Amino acid sequence: MSRRLLIVEDDPGLQSQMRWCFSEDLDVSVAADRESALAALRRSEPDVITLDLGLPPDPGGAKEGFLLLEEILRLSPMTKIIVVTGREDKENAVKAIGMGASDFYQKPLDADILTFVVNRAFRLAELERDNRELARQRNGTNIKGIVAASPQMLAICRTLEKVAPTDVTTLITGETGTGKELLARALHDLSHRFEKPFAAINCAAIPENLLESELFGFEKGSFTGATQSKKGKIESANGGTLFLDEIGDMPMPLQAKLLRFLQERVVDRVGSVKPVPVDVRVVCATHRDVQQLIDQETFREDLYYRISEITLDVPALREREGDALVVAQSLLQSLGKQMDRPNLAFTEDAIKAIKTHPWPGNVREMINKVKRATIMADGKRVTAADLELNCDFEGPESQLNLRQVRENAERAAIVQALQSCSFNMAQASRLLGVTRPTLYNLTDKYRIETSPESSGA
User: Fold this and answer.
1) Whether pLDDT at 298 is above 90
2) In this structure, are residues 191 and 281 in contact, taking their beta carbons and an 8 Å threshold?
3) 3-class secondary structure for the chain?
4) CB 391 within 8 Å of CB 429
5) Are 29 and 54 in contact (CB under 8 A)?
6) Average pLDDT over residues 60-85
7) Which pLDDT tens digit goes with each residue over 110-168?
8) What is this structure's pTM?
9) Rounded CA gap, 11 and 19, in Å?
10) CA angle 397, 403, 409 (to 5 degrees)
11) How many CA atoms lie within 13 A of 212 on its CB side?
12) Is the pLDDT of residue 285 over 60?
């Protein structure tokens, strides 16, 4: 991808000199006033802009330049802006840096220095772009598709990584839209079965009279319309992983047959008397309270113990500290890239709305909101109105004093750093930017346990 530079300068002579400074592999465009600069910004989306503050109709002042600087930062916050000032005009340079410019250059023109400053800005833009891409790919976890930074989800991910290499039957519980199928796929991808099939079936989406044949298969002539034998989902997953979604909705008669399969690891096709041995890892998921189903006698207790050798209880998005904004930003980047709208960013009111919205539909609701906002947003900034969210909600944190807010945030950051570093104090101190003695003092102050055993993680 070619590097793009926009030179905003009203003096034709300086325009030519500045263009001459840069090599041919740089895509250089020029603008002489605020209107043409904004048009060039929208047209070429430059990585770096050199901005002379003295623009018409006020070439002797800096008012027009500062107005243009504000608009560039609003429309393209990732663009690196180098402010060009006079030798005695340090006050405006400092003000521009405070507003968000990344660097400044003082006249008169020196080709070597200007080239150095511009190349440094390009390098900074490239590093930030690489960092955003890396963050998008990693998302705080090593699990594909899972975006998380909260202690709650990081604990789930660490448990999943330990469980994945084994063949234990796993039950994933949690509200609709929390990503249970993604976790099931991660269990498969991180296991020794990753090259074998991953077969998924939704027990709530198939009528009861068809579910048995879908799961266990059938023999030719076993019922009207069975013109040939067919393998069921269990057999088709042989060697791999079988994912039974919404198992809480499975009819009682089929629960007994599934229990026998889990005990014997053989499949009885409908209409067959010859059992078929199957080697498969079983992962189940449900949004329902299984214990309540057992009490209501709609789910077998013995089956529950078979499918829940390990249970992963996925928290709702509103219960994951700080994850709402992390997930939203990741979605904005990926959806923006898909829709050819890169470098979108949330406004302050959008960030506040994302943090305070209860997200009853969890990540599925957020995908819906962010996708709409990606289409509807004007310019590069996504507002709360674009997300169709209300930003007037006053959360409980508004009732706390500054000291409480600071202490709560500090404690949460320390706990998150310790858990993400597996309680390695040296790594956690580097992550937090403090010395080890300081971290030990803070853990003592907030009575934070410094080992996974004592913390219950």
Assistant:
1) yes
2) yes
3) CCEEEEEECCCHHHHHHHHHCCCCCEEEEEECCHHHHHHHHHHHCCCEEEEECCCCCCCCCCHHHHHHHHHHHHHCCCCEEEEEECCCCHHHHHHHHHHCCCEEEECCCCHHHHHHHHHHHHHHHHHHHHHHHHHHHHCCCCCCCCCCCCHHHHHHHHHHHHHCCCCCCEEEECCCCCCHHHHHHHHHHCCCCCCCCEEEEECCCCCHHHHHHHHHCECCCCCCCCCCCECCHHHHCCCCEEEEECHHHCCHHHHHHHHHHHHHCEECCECCCCCEECCCEEEEEECCCHHHHHHCCCCCHHHHHHHCCEEEECCCHHHCCCHHHHHHHHHHHHHHHHCCCCCCEECHHHHHHHHHCCCCCHHHHHHHHHHHHHHHCCCCEECHHHHCCCCCCCCHHHHCCHHHHHHHHHHHHHHHHHHHCCCCHHHHHHHHCCCHHHHHHHHHHCCCCCCHHHHCC
4) no
5) no
6) 88
7) 888 888 999 999 999 888 887 766 655 554 566 777 888 788 888 898 899 999 999 99
8) 0.58
9) 12
10) 60
11) 17
12) yes
Number of residues that make up the chain? 457
Tokens 């090259």 locate to: 195
Residue 87 has a pLDDT of 63
Give the percent of the chain with pLDDT over 70: 92
Query: Whose structure tokens read 């200007």?
Result: 114
Please classify residue 166 by burial: count the beta carbons closer than 10 Å to its beta carbon, then call 0-12 exposed, 13-18 middle and 19+ buried. middle
Phi and psi at residue 27, to the nearest 5° = -90, 100
Residue 308's CB: how many other CB atoms inside 10 A?
A: 17
Those residues with Cβ within 8 angstroms of residue 4's Cβ, 6 or more apart along the chain or in another chain: 26, 27, 29, 44, 45, 46, 47, 48
- Other C-beta atoms within 10 Å of 63: how many? 12
Q: How far apart are CA 12 and CA 14, in angstroms?
A: 6
The answer to whether 48 touches 5, Cβ cutoff 8 Å, is yes
Q: What is the pLDDT of residues 209-251, one digit of tens each?
A: 789 888 988 887 777 777 788 888 999 999 999 999 999 999 9
Can you tell me the distance from the alpha carbon of 136 to that of 91, in angstroms, rounded to the nearest whole number?
A: 38
Q: Find the Cα–Cα–Cα–Cα dihedral 401, 407, 410, 411, rounded to 10°.
A: -130
Q: What is the pLDDT of residue 25?
A: 74
CA distance 229 to 220: 4
Residue 396 pLDDT > 50, yes or no?
A: no
Give the chain's mean pLDDT: 86
pLDDT band at 106 (very low <50, low <70, confident <90, very high): confident
